[in-house]
Design brief:
Length: 199
């Protein structure tokens, strides 16, 4: 027995010691910290670069859009001021023709003494009145102004009569309206040539 324990003690003594675990030296730890720091700085710089390019791209896009707008402005195509409105014989005496209300904003009225053209624009705030044949008047839907068939304001807030437009006969015999020439009743313009086309 004694011999066995002596032999095992000898065995233990002869077993090699485990190799020492490598320790992180202060120098390596410092290097590691430096690497981390450099990595963070690099990532931040990349992010800043990305933001910079995005800003430049946005600016360039806005500038290009402004250039396009400058060279190709949005043009409002309005109907020409002068238009033809058919032959006098096509009109019924006593009737208000509303065929050109939508396209030209004009009514043409045929009376026994002749024709006149009214601008379909309320003199209050510019809405388009409606011709009410049963009531024999133009009625503005916005604030209730009413105008006689001649264009005289008589109810609601409209401060003055509707405007008349120059009316004549064109070379081809058709009625021709010139919207650039207006006649205002309160200025005595309705008596002037061009305000009425005599029948
Ligand atoms: S716009 Fe016609 S009544 Fe006001």
């Amino acid at each position: 027995m004694a011999e066995d324990s002596a032999a095992s003690a000898d065995k233990k003594e002869s077993m090699p010691e485990p190799p020492p675990q490598p320790e992180v030296t202060p120098g390596e730890e410092f290097k590691e910290n430096v690497r981390d720091f450099v990595d963070k700085v690099r990532k931040r710089r990349e992010a800043m670069t990305l933001v910079g390019w995005a800003s430049i791209a946005t600016f360039c896009g806005a500038y290009a859009l402004a250039l396009v707008r400058f060279f190709f402005p949005r043009v409002l195509f309005e109907p020409p001021n002068v238009f033809k409105a058919g032959y006098p014989a096509e009109y019924t005496v006593g009737a208000v023709d509303t065929n050109y209300q939508k396209s030209q904003r004009v009514w043409i009225v045929r009376e026994p003494e002749g024709f006149y053209a009214l601008l379909a624009k309320c003199t209050h705030l510019g809405c388009t009145p409606v011709w009410k044949e049963a009531e024999n008047k133009f009625k503005c839907p916005c604030h209730g102004s009413g105008f006689t068939k001649e264009g005289i304001n008589y109810e609601g807030p409209a401060p003055r009569p509707l405007e008349r437009l120059k009316i004549a006969v064109a070379d081809d015999g058709q009625i021709q309206i010139d919207k650039s020439i207006k006649f205002r009743q309160e200025k005595g313009d309705w008596e002037k040539p061009g305000a009425l086309l005599k029948a």
